[in-house]
Design goal:
This protein has about 300 residues and is mainly β. It is built from one helix and 21 strands. The protein is globular, with a radius of gyration of 21 Å.
Length: about 300
């Protein structure tokens, strides 16, 4: 069963912010923009305070910096209805952050229609950006009345952003996590590394992993064990560590494996969205978002780096 998760490009203060819902009745869906320019809210250049028939949402900005401004509707080039939503996001950290915001569209009865992930790159400290997202897979009979809410927000320092494509990072390697798989309480997420530089890149052993909670505080109550055999067999996290040399363009992977079993325990279940990853000693850290629902097991298995077959 495929596990739904945020895009790892993106893999946000790393907060899971409270869901906030409001509504604006708007006429069209427009492009994304930020608060420094014209104020598009679900419409090209539209101002919610000046739009005819608009009811401003009675929602105060939440203390963590994300507010849903409202929802609206428009049509694509083929005439199909598409609901949209606008929100503002303020970086209240002391360094540039990249965010992944999940906006959920729901029917009037509360039935889930679509979830849309929006990656907001490199928001400077103290800056507020305004964004618009559009759902393309909502049934036509529900599109005109769809409501929106902020489902989830994740963030991380832009300097630690994962990269699966685009310009090669200054380190010469891309590191990111995949969406993973989940079945019968077993979770398996792959870490991927690509040498996008111009020189060979050597790995030997296991990536170093540090678990972080929603506030980006280190979680020390979980044992990180080398290899996945202590969790489950056949996940790809087994085998001895070997030296791996990656020529430019070559890739390697390692596997994170855990169970979400919840049994009796004084501390309760551990749910930690983030993992900081060091590919090897001395490497720059990268923050990924495996959404670690570790239950009360207290263990995360980490497999060794293995070279991908070409």
């Amino acid at each position: 069963m495929r596990r739904t998760r945020l895009n790892r490009l993106t893999r946000l203060k790393g907060l899971a912010l409270p869901a906030i819902a409001g509504s604006l009745l708007l006429t069209a869906c427009g492009p994304e923009d930020d608060a420094a320019g014209p104020p598009p809210v679900c419409g090209p250049g539209s101002d919610p305070s000046a739009s005819a028939g608009v009811t401003t949402a009675s929602v105060a900005p939440d203390e963590d910096g994300v507010t849903l401004i409202g929802t609206g509707g428009g049509a694509d080039s083929g005439g199909s209805a598409r609901p949209c939503a606008a929100y503002t996001l303020t970086n209240r950290e002391t360094q540039p952050f990249t965010y992944v915001v999940t906006v959920g569209f729901r029917s009037e009865s509360g039935r889930a229609l679509s979830d849309v992930e929006d990656t907001v790159e490199t928001v400077a400290p103290g800056r507020t950006v305004r964004r618009t997202v559009t759902a393309s897979d909502v049934p036509g009979d529900a599109a005109g009345t769809a409501q929106a809410k902020i489902v989830k927000v994740r963030g991380f320092p832009t300097a630690e952003a994962p990269s699966a494509g685009g310009t090669c990072p200054p380190t010469g390697v891309r590191v990111y996590a995949d969406d993973g798989d989940a079945a019968m309480g077993l979770r398996v997420v792959g870490l991927h590394l690509e040498n996008c530089g111009t020189r060979p890149y050597r790995l030997n052993g296991y990536p170093r992993i540090e678990i972080r909670d929603e506030g980006h505080e280190r979680v020390g109550s979980v044992s990180i064990v080398k290899g996945g055999e202590a969790i489950a067999g056949g996940t790809g996290a087994e085998g001895p560590p070997r030296q791996v040399e990656l020529r430019p363009g070559e890739r390697a992977h390692a596997v994170l494996v855990w169970r979400n079993t919840v049994e009796g325990g004084v501390d309760g279940p551990v749910n930690a969205p983030y993992a900081r990853v060091w590919a090897k000693p001395g490497a720059a850290p990268v923050t990924v978002i495996p959404e670690l629902d570790l239950g009360t097991t207290g263990k995360l298995g980490v497999g060794p780096w293995k070279k991908d077959e070409q």
